[in-house]
Amino acid sequence: MNLVAANRGMRLDIRHVQVLVEIARAGSIRKAAGVLQVAQPALAAQVRRIEQALGGAVFTRTRSGITPTELGRYVIGSGRELLARFDRLLADTAAEAGAGQVTFGVMFVLDAGTGLRLLRTAMPQADIALRDVNSVPEALAMVRQRELDLVLFYEFPGPRPPLPDGVERRVVIGVEPAFIGLPADHPHASLDALPLPALAEEQWIIGGHGDGTSREARFLLLCGRAGFSPRIRHRVDTCESMFQLVRHGEGIALFNPLCVPPADVVLRPLAGEPHYRSTALCWRSDSPVARHIDEFHRLLVATYHAEVALRPHYRDWWLAVGGDLVDAPPDAPRPVPCVN
Question: Looking at residues 304-310, what average pLDDT do you find?
Answer without folding.
Answer: 89
